Amino acid sequence: MTAGSQGPRPLILGLLLCALGPALTQGGKLLVVPIDGSHWLSLVRIVQQLQHKGHDIVVLAPDASMYIKEGAFYTLKRYPVPFRREDLEVAFINLGRSVFENDPFLQRMVKIYKKIKDDSALLFSACSHLLHNKELMSSLAEGSFDAVLTDPFLPCGPIVAQYLAVPAVFFLNGLPCSLDFQGTQCPNPPSYVPRPLSFNSDRMTFLQRVKNILIALSESFLCNVVYSQYAPLASEVLQKDVTLQDLMSYASIWLLRSDFVNNYPRPIMPNTVFIGGINCASKKPLSQEFEAYVNASGEHGIVVFSLGSMVSEIPEQKAMEIADALGKIPQTVLWRYTGTPPPNLAKNTKLVKWLPQNDLLGHPKTRAFITHSGSHGVYEGICNGVPMVMMPLFGDQMDNAKRMETRGAGVTLDILEMSSEDLENALKTVISDKSYKENIMRLSSLHKDRPVEPLDLAVFWVEFVMRHKGAPHLRPAAHDLTWYQYYSLDVIGFLLAVVLTVIFITFKGCAFAFRKCFGKKERVKKSHKSKAH
Amino acid sequence: MTAGSQGPRPLILGLLLCALGPALTQGGKLLVVPIDGSHWLSLVRIVQQLQHKGHDIVVLAPDASMYIKEGAFYTLKRYPVPFRREDLEVAFINLGRSVFENDPFLQRMVKIYKKIKDDSALLFSACSHLLHNKELMSSLAEGSFDAVLTDPFLPCGPIVAQYLAVPAVFFLNGLPCSLDFQGTQCPNPPSYVPRPLSFNSDRMTFLQRVKNILIALSESFLCNVVYSQYAPLASEVLQKDVTLQDLMSYASIWLLRSDFVNNYPRPIMPNTVFIGGINCASKKPLSQEFEAYVNASGEHGIVVFSLGSMVSEIPEQKAMEIADALGKIPQTVLWRYTGTPPPNLAKNTKLVKWLPQNDLLGHPKTRAFITHSGSHGVYEGICNGVPMVMMPLFGDQMDNAKRMETRGAGVTLDILEMSSEDLENALKTVISDKSYKENIMRLSSLHKDRPVEPLDLAVFWVEFVMRHKGAPHLRPAAHDLTWYQYYSLDVIGFLLAVVLTVIFITFKGCAFAFRKCFGKKERVKKSHKSKAH
Questions:
Q1: Number of A–B residue contacts, CB under 8 Å
Q2: Predicted confidence (pLDDT) at residue A533 exceeds the cutoff of 70
């Protein structure tokens, strides 16, 4: 048997699922509370599919949005927020720029902290404005929705769902500070489940495990800066005491954009559904422009280069270093770059303002993918079996890169520290060393060999929650325990008390019996002696 | 939207999966090492489906087998064992009979212990004879199998798989003493995951949690009687030190005949696939005999009654009590019973030597199911939405009954203690109290609303393991940790030592500084004083 010999089967199945769907489903009403940015771009595919299946969909978004626009397959309800679209764009661009500021460590940390705090406050103000918009909230309450589909990265959607008393489906890549583990009540042993930002794999040395536990211990403090305001807001809106964990525990189903080809195997809970690679589904033929680039590349093929939606400009010095390296490989490089073209740009390097990343990666002539290793990009690399040169910039990108490197499917570079030669060598390595291609192809064949396509699985579970008004049979009883009950500390305490009491009584009993027996004898002896005297 | 409105979809999908399968799969070679009894009856459906998909299948069985016979869709390889088929049948019948022996508790426990020990020794001898059968083992080694599909309830199959160095798929309902949790490295918090034989639900009182932990603590001792001999046997055959946990950890994929409609939600691992209800798949129209019974039952319909394959005879007194109760309900009762007919058998009760349980339960005229609540029966009750009167006899049946009772889908009776009225009342309750029908129908609609049919899912994952030579990407790194590393005890110890050292040094430092400062002053003062004197 050959690995991956069943390649086309899930795709055909997926199509059949879609084709069968509409005829068998009655239309429901779904409220979508997305988060702006790349998160929305994969969520929108599910929304589209659900509309095709006959559901009536309302998408809720601030009037200052970057990616969330009017769409043919949903009704967009906008709400006013105290900032403009431009403010959001500046915040995003500044985040991208901050990567290249080469400040000393402490200064850098303070800057990052301040930036996260400011951006969080901006996004929190949008949430607060939504929840205090009485007119909109009552019109939603009258909407009789069957479910809320939301990205809980910022827990505004979960508050809306609880306010409407409607079951929720969470759609996400993962949450910082193990909030997703808390929300699902999923065990998370720090001995082999690497913590985000630890750069650990699932196989750790002793010191790496020490680091992992220290990060685990500090997680709840670290996340306060982003999340501390949501529980008071929820408590006010819902008129009851609500914690952040209550908000995160509200989901009936968690759709995780992840799988165990990319992530390390770890415990999971029954209401977690893995839909990693959902963004690879929609493939289109290349436009004439890109088809021409690829055809002109000859036997050496092409390299696709993009640092994601947040970074399309790079400081000139760095851009020149990169351009220098790209000029030294025989492949044609398609580089998504909106800044001033570096003066040393070689002939083989084409700058484009946008590129059809997934379609280009799917072309057989693509030899390598230079990426910031965002979760979408990494999955597109895996789906299409393209070895990667990774330059992680922030957030989960370092961990994504670490995982691909551990699996021998790519090389990681520090974009600040790397030299032109480092990039050139990394590219030549992943292209000429066959092991990289073999490893990514193995990952690709494992990833694509699945009984149901991720998009169909996501649609199925959203509809399941709509049909059954939630999924209470998948909710573990752990949600109803206190932390000391969960860890059985009260039972252990009780059993220890029983054991100690038994030991104590036995000891006292023995001592008493000993005194009774030998004490008497001694007294008898003594009295005997005294009589003898 | 209506719950369950998509009822027929998974079935259609399942059929499509099957129809598509053969054309897309290259045939592989599969070795099946089953366990005799009802376990085999659901495993054989997977075997049949795999053969339809073009795989070459060899089934390995002792020449003294009860259920495992020659089949058109596999090659049966028999091996000699030191007992006859009759010995096995007697052991099974005696197990059934032992249920009705009304001995005092302690005497009963000693008898059960002795019975389990004797039966285990019998089955172990079969395993030992297989593994020491050099000719057969070398012919298997030459068979170049792609995978071994086995029931690990007795870990003979896992030893064969390791001996052949071929990946294994485990097929089971569950293992005693949390061996399945150990084998998958799955967390198993005793605070909300009820232990087998505890009769606890997932929501426990303090005292139930105490009982649960005490059972958890004693599990490893309890299972010694069945499993202690397998590790030495494996070590001898594999010529390396092997523990029972090593054997149980060998599986690439665990196919669990369970789901979260029947079982309580709890942590799971990525290589566990839930195929509960796999035995409901094959439905046939009723034979003329049974069709006639059902048609003659009129508006009151029928009740299906079976205590499973192990118990088809009951002591006369008990049989008469049961017959008395059955005579008092208006339904026609179809009772699988091979013993002497009770003299008081009413006209509405038909005794049959065998009945097509799943097909009868699927008939719309079926009003209730009297069952010993074995895992197969409970799933047939759920699939077909029939309320149950449960008389658990041994093993996991008590826990199965408890779960259905907790969910309001049935009533449990103690077959030894119950009176005729108890049975009559229980039957009348589950038939006339609409909540039982509503609850089992709700469970049924949840159970059947799934993206892929359990049989297709099982076949998919066996083929996955054959295609990819295992599923190492789903194997958690926890397998490579010692128990103290898994619980991070070494890291916690180290961190405590660091903290204590820091406290100690700080304290000593302060004390030293204190002495330096105030000690001097004091000395100065003293010397000053002495000078003053």
A1: 209
A2: no
